Amino acid sequence: MPQSRRGSIPAKAGIGLRFPHHQAVVDARPEVAWLEAHTENYMGGGTSLRYLETIRGDYPLSLHGVGLSLGSAEGIDAAHLERVRRVVERIEPGLVSEHLSWSVVGGAYLADLLPLPMTEEALDVVCRHVDQAQACLNRRLLIENPSTYLRFRHSAIPEWEFLARVVERTGCGILCDVNNIYVSCCNHGWDAATYLAALPPAAVAEIHLAGHAVKKLDDGQVLRIDDHGSRVAPAVWALYAEALARFGPVPTLVEWDTNVPPLEVLLGEATHAEMVLRQVEHEHACADAA
Amino acid sequence: MNTPAPTLLELQHALYRSIVEHDEAEAAASIVVDGIDPAARLGIYRNTFASVLTNALRLSYPAVLRLVAAECFEGAARLFMEEQPPQSANLDDYGVAFPEFLSRFEPVSALAYLLDVARLEWAVSRALHAPDAPPLDLGRLAALTEDEQAHVCFTPHPSAGLVRADHPADSIWRAVLAQDEAALAAIDPSSEPVWLLVHRTERDVEVTRLSEAAWRFTDALFAGRPLHSVLEEAPGAEASALLAEHLAAGRFAAFSVSDTAIS
What we know:
The complex is a heterodimer.
Chain A: E1 13-16, H1 22-28, E2 35-38, H2 47-58, E3 61-64, H3 78-91, E4 96-99, E5 102-105, E6 108-114, H4 120-137, E7 142-144, H5 159-170, E8 173-177, H6 178-188, H7 192-198, E9 204-210, E10 213-216, E11 222-225, H8 234-247, E12 252-255, H9 263-289
Parallel strand pairs in A: 1-2, 1-12, 2-3, 3-4, 4-7, 7-8, 8-9, 9-12
Antiparallel strand pairs in A: 5-6, 10-11
Chain B: H1 8-20, H2 25-29, H3 38-60, H4 62-68, H5 70-83, H6 98-103, H7 114-129, H8 138-142, H9 146-150, E1 152-156, E2 161-165, H10 169-177, H11 181-186, E3 194-200, E4 205-210, H12 212-222, H13 227-233, H14 237-248, E5 252-257
Antiparallel strand pairs in B: 1-5, 2-3, 3-4
């Protein structure tokens, strides 16, 4: 049975906890090393929060936010940061993460993880807000690299370098989303190996895996869309192995948000990730012994 | 192209105009062109904005969705989100103004009861997501003097709410969600107004029909008026019994004793 290890997330495979699986997780207590919940889904009270508190007693749990809008030029919403703080205080998660993106302007929440221009100005804004969030939450935040579908003409810093500089300036960690690296590299013609090589290994505290969609546009061109709606693509599994070879064994989470499948399917993906992790662990052990 | 690069704030406002107002000229001018039309790239983000918010509204208004059919609902949702995008990243709060929007949405104007069903659904959704709060301490209440008790003002539980509907919104809502065509056919939508109490229990959100007098009594208590003044308007055993029921069911989270009592 899963051990109660609240507070520390093991370097094993976990799954994203979604509403349709609340009851199944509580009833069946499946064999999975840890779970991750979306912070914004537990800002109220009632049944959802009770499920999360029950599950937290059985599994290590991390919180993953989508609404802080760390890249907003006008500052982050203090009320939202306070809501995040309250969920974190109540759940005491092992890890807390957010995104390298923005969602709020002029007081409107645009319900997506929007791309930032990779500029010195945006870097200052993000670092200021990461500092603010880490001070408020009194803990290290992990920042996830986004999937993007456009680039801005005035971007001057490669995204991987931007992320590494945020880490250097704020002391935050990295949530390395391997699927997002793959999607963005395909969409923009970037080199995934260059991306991975630029991230400081010591800062990578979590990895995300998910499925993505291949969207054919009207003119026949293709964009890859990070929709979390299918199994992890073979090319992403390959990139995951490369990432682990560079970063060592890292807690790895499989996400699935669109057309959420039965719990067993998600657990199957986590088992796959666990196999890749064990192999890397084995190779690391052999290398250490040599 | 020697136009100066936009500041971060200018760029974010341009993205807002592209996503919410479908005015993409300025945002498109800032995007690298490399084989794919910038408008198509911006369209990905606009689609996410629309699908996430439509989904949030679907979750809060499941009966409205069934009553008006999917296409009409999506049309209403799109116009609503462009008129009133969310003001918070906590999407549990999104959609409070959707019933009022529907009252102005011409394609559904023939459904006189739709607004009532929508208002009830918002009260249910609000109850579902309301913060937890322990029910008030009955022992502390009992320990007050008689004079203090008369001056008690209650704070309703965050999940408790009242809805007055011109149409039998509760019967329509239940029948629609149960997909009970026979029950739906048996409802006379033009019958008397209904007076509803919405409250979250340990397991679920309950919608209870009250008499008009009981609803008005409860409304006055929920508004925080002192008990003696509420009881003056609704004397009798029925009001006392209802107050006892509210207390027992945990429909109040706190109380205070109004200043006039502390003499």
